[in-house]
Design goal:
This protein is mainly alpha-helical. The protein has one domain. 86% of the residues lie in helices and 0% in strands. It starts with a helix and ends with a helix.
């Protein structure tokens, strides 16, 4: 498998899907306002945490065991059975305590939470099987399909006046479509697993589940706690800023999802040098998009959030901090991905535990005292600690070089881009006289991206080689 091409295919798929989701979110923000958007973010955060409890690392364990090419059908079936059992049990508990869920969100949506939970777990099962078969590109291609379906249904239902309920129903439809499509694409069949298959999944998942908890902690702890301390409208503002920061993680996520089965297979075959090379590649390209995104968030934060509506501009103060947090977390994720890929889930477990504890404590303290900015700062600080712990741990397992030169060149190209964007904004405002905010943002982002990649292509031999090596020509 040509890893560069696969990573780009996954990234392109995620990019198309996120663009469609971005358009839908803009529509919701302008039509429904920050309060309903905040409620929507709270529901998705609750579902995400329930999904974590319904998975408990089993999907990643399934991918890991399937990628080792020993009885993949048995492992896939065992994983599906386990997750189905967890999901049904959690769905029942959610309905039992539905009044508490409804009170937290502010709407009667407990039954929809169950539907979202089950559809999400179904999708995780099929995605795990596709990744385990090293069909990462196919799993990635399903993303825009699901988001497109979700967005169309959501917009239609919101236009009919269903508001939050319409958004949640559309989200469930998109998830079910991805799950069914993934099921049709997997090659494994349903077989009767033996006890040892469940045991092997458990042996891996008992440590890897905390990686999912760490991811949820990074993505949702701040949102959940903001829902406790602040009103829904401010949660909506914060979630809008988060959506921009997360958009920039698409390539980073594509790299990690593409490399995991490759790392796992290389380690299983005893190819230590290949493992080290893959780790170095992941660190080289983990910040490829996030680094210029950080500069862009600092320079264009207010303009970006003004697209959502005037009430969202207050989130500009946290946007660049959240992007910095995602940059640090992106490197941490690549390092932990490598630890899990070489079958060291226990080491990853310890790092995840430390990260979660720090993240929760800092969020509680700083949200209560500083508010929105406190949530962003807490997330960034915990990510910084996490990446240092992950780096120290992985270097004790694998001898690899940190590509400081390539990372420095990416920062240099981003700095050049920033200069062009600052000058371009002045020209657009004073010479051209363009007063349309959205058009200005699109123009500046396009010019900035072109500048960044042109400069990086010129100063980085590694980047040039990667482009040429993975070119279809």
């Amino acid at each position: 498998m040509r890893i560069g091409q696969t990573s780009f295919a996954v990234f392109a798929s995620k990019l198309v899907g996120s663009a469609l989701g971005f358009v839908a979110t803009l529509y919701f923000a302008r039509t429904l306002g920050a309060e309903v958007l905040g409620q929507y973010a709270l529901v998705l955060a609750v579902v995400a945490w329930l999904s974590l409890a319904g998975d408990l690392g089993v999907s990643q364990a399934t991918t890991k065991r399937m990628s080792e090419d020993e009885e993949p059908s048995a492992y896939a079936t065992a994983g599906a059975i386990t997750i189905a059992g967890f999901g049904l049990a959690l769905g029942g508990l959610t309905l039992l305590f539905g009044d508490g869920v409804n009170a937290y969100v502010g709407e009667s949506i407990a039954s929809l939470v169950v539907v979202l939970l089950l559809s999400g777990l179904f999708t995780s099962v099929t995605s795990a099987a596709l990744n385990g078969e090293r069909k990462v590109h196919l799993a990635g291609l399903l993303t825009p399909v699901g988001i497109a379906a979700r967005s169309v249904v959501q917009i239609a239902l919101v236009a009919l006046g269903l508001e939050l309920v319409g958004m949640l129903v559309g989200y469930a439809v998109g998830g079910l479509l991805v799950g069914v499509s993934g099921l049709l694409l997997v090659s494994v069949t349903v077989v009767r697993p033996r006890r040892e298959h469940f045991v092997e999944l458990y042996e891996y998942a008992k440590f890897s589940w905390l990686g999912g908890l760490q991811s949820r902690s990074f993505n949702d702890v701040d949102v959940l706690l903001l829902g406790v301390f602040l009103q829904s409208s401010l949660v909506g503002v914060y979630s809008a800023a988060w959506s921009i920061a997360k958009f920039l993680t698409l390539f980073d996520s594509a790299v990690s999802s593409t490399l995991f089965p490759e790392l796992s297979r290389a380690d299983a075959e005893g190819r230590g040098q290949s493992v080290a090379g893959l780790v170095e590649d992941s660190l080289t390209y983990g910040g490829l998009i996030l680094i210029p995104g950080l500069f862009g968030g600092i320079l264009l934060g207010e303009r970006l959030l003004r697209i959502y509506g005037p009430e969202f501009v207050t989130g500009a103060s946290v946007l660049w901090i959240l992007i910095a947090a995602t940059l640090l977390y992106g490197y941490q994720k690549q390092l932990l991905n490598a630890l899990n890929g070489i079958d060291r889930p226990k080491a990853a477990f310890r790092i995840n535990a430390a990260f979660i504890a720090i993240n929760v404590v800092l969020n509680v303290v700083l949200i209560a005292t500083v508010g929105l900015v406190g949530a962003a700062v807490a997330t960034a600080l915990s990510a910084g600690v996490g990446v240092m712990l992950a780096l120290y741990t992985l270097r004790s397992e694998i001898a690899f070089a940190i590509p400081t030169g390539e990372i420095a060149r990416q920062f240099a190209a981003a700095a050049a881009m920033a200069g062009v964007v600052v000058g371009g904004e002045t020209v657009v405002r004073t010479v051209i006289g363009l007063n349309h905010n959205f058009a200005t943002v699109v123009l500046l982002v396009a010019v900035g991206a072109a500048t960044y990649f042109a400069v990086l292509f010129g100063i980085s031999e590694t980047f040039r080689s990667t482009v040429f090596d993975n070119s279809p020509l």
